What does this fold into?
Amino acid sequence: MVIKKKKKILITGVAGFIGFSLAKKIIESNNYNVIGIDNLNSYYIKKLKYKRLTLLKHKNFKFYKIDLIEKSKLFNLFKKHKFDIVFNLAAQAGVRYSFKDPKSYTNSNIIGFINLIEMIKNFKIDKFFFASSSSVYGDQKTYPKKESSEINPINLYSLSKASNEQFANSVSKTTNTKMIGLRFFTIYGPWGRPDMMIIKYLISAYKGVGFPLFNNGNHFRDFTYIDDAINICISLLNKKIIKKFDIFNICSSKPILITKILKDINKYSKKPLIKKKRRDRADVYKTYGDNKKIKNFLKKDIKFTSYYLGVKNTCNWFLENKKIFD
Ligand SMILES: NC(=O)c1ccc[n+]([C@@H]2O[C@H](COP(=O)([O-])OP(=O)(O)OC[C@H]3O[C@@H](n4cnc5c(N)ncnc54)[C@H](O)[C@@H]3O)[C@@H](O)[C@H]2O)c1
It folds into this structure.
């Protein structure tokens, strides 16, 4: 009997929300060996990142604390492990923070991304998936946005993501690596990011601190549940890919008004004190993606988790794990 060697996957940003959720699902499937890297930065509470890492402890998983900026460490890692697939989920996330600390975006999202692409090219990786963002669309007049729609990045974060897409597209012409950009739309769920609305609101209520509500909550976001986003990533991992470069929206295609979601969270948690703020210059009015391209590509009618169940699961997770945020 021939025992097939398991393929090796590198997940960058593995202590982050999406990286952790993806690694967990792949490890549980036992089909791949997973190597994760993260610089464990303090953009948000580190305790949450360490806690996620403890849940990944498994014989099919190895972790290295490496920053994408550390080119020689990346080189040694790629030399040692001979990866088949790379998933880049490491980045400086957040649109508002890009006005506070622009350098962290150029370091991680631009220089770090270029370092990684260089390794992908040198080590002839089969498939390279990288996180882009709905924010590349910026403010628009018509919705839903398709992958072929014009982009309009309005801050350094979205500009860094748009540049990643263009850079990968151009490099893909001179390599055999299949390069796939994933435009994630407001991913939420258990183990979610504390700088993003739902968990931030729950933390404010728990700690009794004010919750900053921008533009009276008059924004729409295409909230997409983490399990749905991860199922799509796993389907892509196992899918035969022909095109050298492609981009997909990862979204439920059901935008929800912020004030509506806050009302629904109030069913599970006490209400925090609301601190009204003007519209932030980094915020777009609405995100709303078209998800037909990914559905057609995967040849399946992806079932998206209902928003009510997603919010309920997220609130219940928070209430069980709120001590992490003490
Ligand atoms: N969560 C969302 O709704 C969303 C939406 C659109 C795009 N994205 C993108 O998806 C990716 C993952 O997002 P997330 O929500 O999991 O964010 P996250 O902040 O939870 O995870 C990112 C991880 O990357 C690590 N990291 C940052 N810079 C690094 C560097 N230079 N080297 C190594 N590690 C580094 C961080 O420590 C963190 O653990 C990011 O590229 C983000 O921009 C996320």
